[in-house]
Amino acid sequence: MRTTSRFLLGAGLVAVTAALAGAHDMFLKPAQFFLAENSTLDLVLLNGTFSKSENSIAPERFLDISTLGPDGRFQVHQSAWKATGDTSFFSVKVGAAATYVIGVSTKPNIIALKADEFNTYLKDDGIPDVLAARKRDGELGKDSKERYHKHVKAMVQVGEARTEHYATALGYPAEIVPLNNPYSLKTGGILRFKTLVDGKPAASQYVLYGGRTAAGGRIEMRNVRSGADGTAEIKVGSAGTWYIKFINMSKVTGDTAVNYESKWATLTFAVR
Q1: Is 224 domain-assigned?
Q2: Where are the alpha helices (DSSP H) in the chain?
Q3: CATH number, domain at 130?
Q4: Domain region containing 146
Q5: Average pLDDT over residues 81-110
Q6: Domain-located, residue 186
Q7: Over 60: is that where the pLDDT of 11 sits?
């Protein structure tokens, strides 16, 4: 099914109560980042870390699975999604040479955490502003009920033609959109990008980035903040597979179901 409409956040909350279960990172990781025209691309959804998936995700959890390329944006049918053990995966067809974008967006879940668990999660997962606000407001001892949803993208290069599809926002509630093509970068180059929340620039957003070298070694995770216009940049210091991620969390008032909402975004790409 082809669609050019903006993504709309739907309903369908699922309550979950498990220590730190909502703190898993989520990354979309292609089997190949460089591939030939008219190929089949296999992708794995890592729900855990950049190296290992700790839980699979059932297809009914998704609001959108899309691929964007020279023929437009197409939704991937849920029947293409497979979940086995701790791993979720699917395949898409790519056509003519271009820079392609593949995106996955999940429905919201709710997680309840005790105060200490929630504070640790804020510290470890890169949400320092909320932790500082809880400390400032004397709320470090307050338990949390958090509504969270995750929105992940991967970019791959098909053939030799670099195209502008990388700069197209998919309309997810949280999103990382490059301002220059990752596949035009050389080692040591600068990738500029914008952080979006609900389609608007996320000012002073805390962002983490890292990855794996071409030889499989770990690329040290670093952090950066976006500017007032939601833009930031990172230096791609080595060849390999890279990720950029952020969690935008806000306090919720007037809602008896939750007191926080978080919107997660990740982007993966490769440089050689």
Answers
A1: no
A2: 115-124, 128-136
A3: 2.60.40.1930
A4: 14-172+245-271
A5: 94
A6: no
A7: no
Whole-number Å distance between alpha carbons of 202 and 247: 11
Q: Indicate whether 13 pLDDT > 70.
A: no
* Contact status, residue 206 vs residue 136, Cβ threshold 8 Å: no
Cα distance between residue 177 and residue 269, in whole Å: 12
Structural domain count, the chain: 1
**The model's pTM:** 0.90
pLDDT of residue 14: 35
HSE, CB side, 13 Å, CA atoms: give it for residue 214: 9
Strands 144-158 and 174-178: unpaired
Sequence-distant (≥ 6) Cβ neighbours of residue 195 within 8 angstroms = 175, 176, 201, 202, 205, 207, 226, 230, 231, 232, 246, 248, 265
- Report the phi/psi class of residue 38: left, alpha or beta, with left for phi > 0 and alpha for psi in -120 to 50: left
The answer to whether position 193 is within a domain reads no
